[in-house]
Amino acid sequence: MSVNKSWNALSNEFVKCPVDNCGHIGTIITKTHCKLVHNMTREAVRKRYGMPKRVTKVKESEING
Ligand SMILES: [Zn+2]
């Protein structure tokens, strides 16, 4: 894993929500996800947890984006 600079995944990669114990993986970490799941704005998530982690080689069954 390496630190990403955006909330969107690059091609052939996914991003993983930076919030502890979340584990949400998708092609983008949406504002809606942050609000619904964490009750935080995406900016608040970034300040507290940082940017999403880029991940590769994820199994399709783990993608719930
Ligand atoms: Zn999350």
Explain how this protein is built.
The longest helix has 8 residues. The chain is α+β, with helices and mostly antiparallel strands and 65 residues long. A hairpin with an 8-residue loop joins strand 2 and strand 3. The radius of gyration is 11 Å and the shape is globular. The two termini are 19 Å apart. Strands 1-4-2-3 form a four-stranded antiparallel sheet, with no helix packed on it. It contains two helices and four strands, in the order βββααβ. It has one domain. The model has no long low-confidence stretch (mean pLDDT 86). The site of zinc ion has 7 residues, from helix 1.
Largest sheet: 4 strands, antiparallel
The average pLDDT value, as a whole number, equals 86
**Largest sheet strand order:** 1-4-2-3
Q: What assembly state would you assign to the polypeptide chains in this entry? A: single chain
Q: Determine the N-to-C terminus distance.
A: 19 Å
Number of E-type strands? 4
Gyration radius from CA atoms, angstroms = 11 Å
Percent range for β-strand residues: 15-25%
Query: What's the tally of helices?
Result: 2
Q: Level of helix content?
A: 10-25%
Shape: globular
Number of domains: 1
Structural class: alpha+beta
What is bound: which ligands?
A: zinc ion
Low-confidence stretches: none
Helix and strand pattern: EEEHHE
